[in-house]
Amino acid sequence: MFSSLYNFIARRSNSEKQLLTRIRKGSESAYKTFYDMNVRSTNYMAYGFTNQKLGAEDLGFETLKEIWRNHASIDVDKPAKVLIAETMITVYLRNMRAMNN
Fold first, then answer.
1. In contact, 93 and 99? CB cutoff 8 Å
2. Which residues contact 63 (CB under 8 A, 6 or more apart)?
3. Domains assigned to the chain
4. C-alpha dihedral (55, 60, 61, 65), degrees to nearest 10
5. CA distance linking residue 17 with residue 67, whole number of Å
6. Cβ distance 74 to 28 under 8 Å?
7. Contact between residue 76 and residue 24 where contact means Cβ atoms under 8 Å apart
8. What stretches of the chain show up as alpha helix (H) in DSSP?
9. What whole-number distance in Å separates Cα of residue 7 and Cα of residue 29?
């Protein structure tokens, strides 16, 4: 039972790493796939920061846009959810600093 779970996770992480590698190389089609796969969960994660639907959608969009903007420096060894979370924190803090200035 655990070996099949391990195999599933290993396959998923390999395909995720391949997708992130393609994004890092500048593949717009890979980024679109990544975006489509993660937009809902990214907005859901962003809701935890904003507690409002529109604010979450804005933060989610900015987060995914920031990932593309910095695609050449993506650490492909990190899971996608970690990449998204770290990027979201950066974007959120930048937005908060801008609001306070």
1. no
2. 42, 46, 84, 87, 88, 91
3. 12-100 (1.10.1740.10)
4. 140
5. 15
6. no
7. yes
8. 2-24, 28-50, 53-69, 80-100
9. 27
- Give the C-alpha separation, 25 to 59, whole Å: 25
Q: Token match 């396959």: residue?
A: 11
pLDDT tens readout for residues 14-57: 789 999 999 999 999 999 999 999 999 999 999 998 999 889 99
- 36 DSSP 8-state letter: H
Residues 63-88, mean pLDDT to the nearest whole number: 96
**What gap in Å lies between CA 9 and CA 23, rounded to an integer?**
21
